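Listing S7. Sequence submitted for prediction.
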Amino acid sequence: MIDYHKQAVLFQQLYVLKKLTDDWGEKNICPLHQPQFNMAFMPFFMAVGLNGKSSSAIAASLKVSRQATGKIMKELEQNGLIKAEKSTTDARSNLLQLTEEGRNFYLQVAQQASLLTSKYEKLIGKKQLEMMTETMEKMIHFHEKLHQCHLMGGTQG
């Protein structure tokens, strides 16, 4: 017999963890340099990385449309955190790079993320944190395959 309450808890846990992580970011990351920074933009900002990346590559890695990515990147550019430069390998595409201000903010965010990771390690242990990360990667990969199967007309993963 299926315990429906137990099955529904997964969605609640994912939602609450995301909300609390965003709240933590609002309190610990945004005030560092960008009080107006929208935490929903964090995955996009961090995806640019220290070496830069194309908007298309970021969209693909985050599983969102290029249009949505472009809109967020425009906001990050208007906030002075990134700049777009013509790609040296593909004239049709732009390479997104961190500005000096963006680079400083990126390094501050990475430092805060490292501190949070240390707290997680103290809470659950390094091995369990690694297992959790690996488990989430497996779940993401499962859903990617499920999505591909659905796109090809299948109904089950």
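Caption to Listing S7: primary sequence and predicted structure tokens for the chain studied. The first strand starts at residue 53 and ends at 54. The longest helix spans residues 126-151.
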